[in-house]
Structure formats: structure tokens, C-alpha cells
């Protein structure tokens, strides 16, 4: 066992900064030290951990295999320490000046974000929300994002991620009323064969449809991919392209009233929306408050929990 009295934990903060920034100069800027001080700290850390940890390249520095192995444990440990310290300070929404960063699946953003904005105006006017797309690398997502509201979550370091089910909804297929195949029964084969417009993965955070179709030996005819749900109803109404949506949007988006819909013929697929967060920040007061607020917003609208 290492005697922690002889180990400077600040060296681990510098290790994380070098890993995140990929250069000594970038790490120095992040931690507020000179490059020479960071280099000296790295030399000490190399001795303590008995490994080179980083090697120089034309683009900066790259971690050794040992450094990669250590990174998750060091990140987790620093997270726990940060949370333990922050718990000594009560989060007061009405006085807080803070920005939270969230990834939100596009299908649910129209429900969540207006309600969240209204509650923040009343309860936490100094709190702001930065919404990021789902294009961030899974290796770095929890260094940049406080939480996610996403479709059934992928495998993002499951040992470090907590989740809570917010809503479950069935999936429907949308087409215009006079679509050439509007009178045909919707089967998996027909669904895959018809031309689609779909939301990009950056908006949904999932490839579940592709995964299920692939398991059946099928593949969608994807003729158009858009970044926002807002574009889809008008595209479907004015073309032969079809799309999918949570059934609750039939009530929330009036543009869908003119479209024909049928249940998605893939029984394995439902739209399950989950709130996900990093285990390291689970008890941090500010994040705990925001998670509880998001849960409350979904609970207040009980229809979100009920399949159509």
C-alpha cells in the first residue's frame, strides 16, 4: 500500500490535465501552472508510478498503456474527492450562478426543454443550460456532460454510469395520407424497403433501429438524414418518405394530424427515455437538484409514462 502522506494528490490532477489536453502546454494552461512546473510534476509522477506515462509525438504527448489503465481509476477517484468536498456546500437554486451541460435526445427535447426553461425562470434564474449533441466521443463524454436525457442508453462505461427511466413510449411509422403504400399492412420488410427520412444519431444518441433490422437481415432505405425533428413532419407530408416517432408526439405536434400512422412492426423497439449521469457526481448537490427537477417534470405529465 502506498503511504498517501508521501504522495501529492495534486500530481493526479496534473496527470488528468495532460491526458485531457494531450500536451504539456495545454495541461499547464488548464491547471494554472507554468509548462516547466508541469514537466517537473510529471517527472515526479513517473518515479512514483514507475512508468513513463506519456511519450512525445509530433502532435504533443500520448499516454502509455499503463497510463491508459490508470486513467479510469484516477478519474473516478478525483471525482469522488470532488463530490465529497462539494457536499459540504448546500446548493441554493435561487442564488446559484451555474451552467449545466446536458445531452438531450431530439425526440424528447420539445417536451422537456420548454418546461425546464419555465421552471428555471421561477426557481433558478441564475442557472443556465448548455445543450450538446450526441456526437461527443464516448471516451470523453462524462468529462464534458453533466447528464443525458437519451433513448435507451448505449454502453458508456456502465460501471461509472447511473440511469433512471423517465418514460416509455411505443413507436409509430408516419407517412402521408395518400402515400402509394398507405393501404398496405405495415410489415418489417415493407418498413425497411420504403424510403426513409430519419433523425441523425447526433440528435437521438442511438442506432437501435439499425441494430434490430440488421439482426433480421434487413436494412433501411435511408434517403435523407436531418439534424432536427422539426424538419421531419413537413418532409413526410410532402414526399413519399416515411419516418418514425414516439406515439406521444401525435398529440404534441399538430402537424402530425394530417399524416397516416401505424405501429412500428419491430416488437423489440420501444422508445425508452432515460436520465443518465456519472457515478462520480451522483451526490454533488447541484447535479442532484437538476436530476430531481428533470424527474419531476416527467412525473408531472403522467401521460408521458403511458403508451398510446
From TrEMBL:
Please indicate if the UniProt record lists Lipid biosynthesis as a keyword: no
Specify the HTH lysR-type domain's residue ranges.
7-64
GO function term, MF aspect, one? DNA-binding transcription factor activity
Organism domain of life? Bacteria
- Cited PANTHER family: HTH-TYPE TRANSCRIPTIONAL REGULATOR LEUO-RELATED, TRANSCRIPTIONAL REGULATORY PROTEIN
Family the entry assigns? Belongs to the LysR transcriptional regulatory family.
Name the chain's protein: LysR family transcriptional regulator
Please give the organism: Palleronia pontilimi
Q: Which residues cross the membrane?
A: none
Amino acid at each position: 500500500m502506498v503511504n498517501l502522506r508521501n504522495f501529492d494528490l495534486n500530481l493526479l490532477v496534473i496527470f488528468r490535465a495532460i491526458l485531457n489536453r494531450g500536451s504539456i502546454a495545454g495541461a499547464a494552461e488548464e491547471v494554472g501552472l507554468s509548462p516547466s512546473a508541469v514537466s517537473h510534476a510529471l517527472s515526479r509522477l513517473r518515479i512514483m508510478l514507475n512508468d513513463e506515462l506519456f511519450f512525445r509525438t509530433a502532435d504533443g504527448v500520448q499516454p502509455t498503456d499503463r497510463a491508459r489503465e490508470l486513467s479510469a481509476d484516477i478519474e473516478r477517484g478525483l471525482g469522488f474527492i470532488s463530490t465529497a468536498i462539494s457536499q459540504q456546500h448546500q446548493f441554493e437554486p435561487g442564488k446559484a450562478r451555474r451552467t449545466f451541460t446536458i445531452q438531450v435526445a431530439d425526440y424528447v427535447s420539445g417536451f422537456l426543454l420548454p418546461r425546464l426553461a419555465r421552471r428555471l425562470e421561477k426557481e433558478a434564474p441564475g442557472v443556465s443550460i448548455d445543450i450538446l449533441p450526441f456526437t461527443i466521443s464516448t471516451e470523453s463524454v462524462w468529462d464534458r456532460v453533466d447528464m443525458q436525457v437519451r433513448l435507451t442508453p448505449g454502453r458508456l462505461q456502465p460501471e461509472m454510469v447511473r440511469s433512471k427511466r423517465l418514460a416509455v413510449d411505443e413507436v409509430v411509422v408516419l407517412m402521408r395520407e395518400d402515400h402509394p403504400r398507405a393501404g398496405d399492412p405495415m410489415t418489417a420488410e415493407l418498413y425497411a424497403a420504403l424510403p426513409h427520412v430519419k433523425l441523425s444519431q447526433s440528435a437521438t444518441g442511438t442506432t437501435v433501429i439499425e441494430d434490430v433490422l440488421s439482426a433480421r437481415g434487413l436494412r433501411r432505405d435511408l434517403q435523407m438524414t436531418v439534424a432536427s425533428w422539426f424538419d421531419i413532419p413537413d418532409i413526410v407530408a410532402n414526399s413519399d418518405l416515411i419516418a418514425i416517432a414516439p406515439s406521444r408526439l401525435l398529440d404534441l405536434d399538430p402537424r402530425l394530424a394530417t399524416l397516416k400512422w401505424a405501429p412500428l412492426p419491430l416488437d423489440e423497439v420501444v422508445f425508452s427515455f432515460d436520465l443518465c449521469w456519472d457515478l462520480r457526481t451522483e451526490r454533488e448537490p447541484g447535479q442532484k437538484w437538476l436530476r430531481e427537477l428533470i424527474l419531476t417534470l416527467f412525473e408531472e405529465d403522467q401521460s408521458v409514462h403511458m403508451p398510446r
